[in-house]
Amino acid sequence: MTVSLIGVYGASGFGKEVMPLVRMQYPQFSNDSFVFIDDGQAGTLLNGYPVLGYAEFLDRLNTDKAVTIAIANSQIREKLAIRLTQDGIQHLNIRANNTVILDEVDIGEGSLFCSFTCLTSNIKIGKFFHANIYSYVAHDCVIGDYVTFAPSVKCNGNVHIEDHAYIGTGAVIKQGTPDKPLVIGKGAVVGMGAVVTKSVPAGATVIGNPARILEKK
């Protein structure tokens, strides 16, 4: 890679976890090549790295820049991704060095795989997917754009997850079948520890074991 400045967008708790993964993926760069980007904390240091506002990041003299977006909110992630593309900033695909990826796995740009994540075989994943620690995606799954896995998500085979879905910590998604995959609809939220045994409608929030729709009051 021929960039000279690498940014982690988001100086939050998740950003703190992502920066070491970025640094390990690019050991050829000095510490001076890594920065956080966060308008709310600009001008500070985080774990020894400067936090820049976005305008300052763009104004740096380095001609070649690249960014990973360490923000769980998928709507914000999409807005930032569009802005970065418009400004000609390269999107990074970040993978912890112990990530396991097997056969016939297609991954879109801007992905982020934290430590101990696993993708088995025959999987298609869209843009800007986040998989937090100890998460896995099993065979024959299709995952859309801007999907977020919190830690320890277990997504079994023949599951389709549509754009902007959020899967909470420790959730388990039951395996579907080739002729009838289990579907998590667009923008759905699967709560922490939920056990999903049937498809979830778009925009719904499900909780519990077995998972049920959380009714709005």
TrEMBL record:
<protein>
    <submittedName>
        <fullName>Acetyltransferase</fullName>
    </submittedName>
</protein>
<feature type="site" description="Increases basicity of active site His">
    <location>
        <position position="140"/>
    </location>
</feature>
<dbReference type="InterPro" id="IPR011004">
    <property type="entry name" value="Trimer_LpxA-like_sf"/>
</dbReference>
<feature type="domain" description="PglD N-terminal">
    <location>
        <begin position="6"/>
        <end position="83"/>
    </location>
</feature>
<dbReference type="Pfam" id="PF17836">
    <property type="entry name" value="PglD_N"/>
</dbReference>
<dbReference type="InterPro" id="IPR050179">
    <property type="entry name" value="Trans_hexapeptide_repeat"/>
</dbReference>
<dbReference type="InterPro" id="IPR020019">
    <property type="entry name" value="AcTrfase_PglD-like"/>
</dbReference>
<feature type="active site" description="Proton acceptor">
    <location>
        <position position="139"/>
    </location>
</feature>
<comment type="similarity">
    <text>Belongs to the transferase hexapeptide repeat family.</text>
</comment>
<dbReference type="InterPro" id="IPR041561">
    <property type="entry name" value="PglD_N"/>
</dbReference>
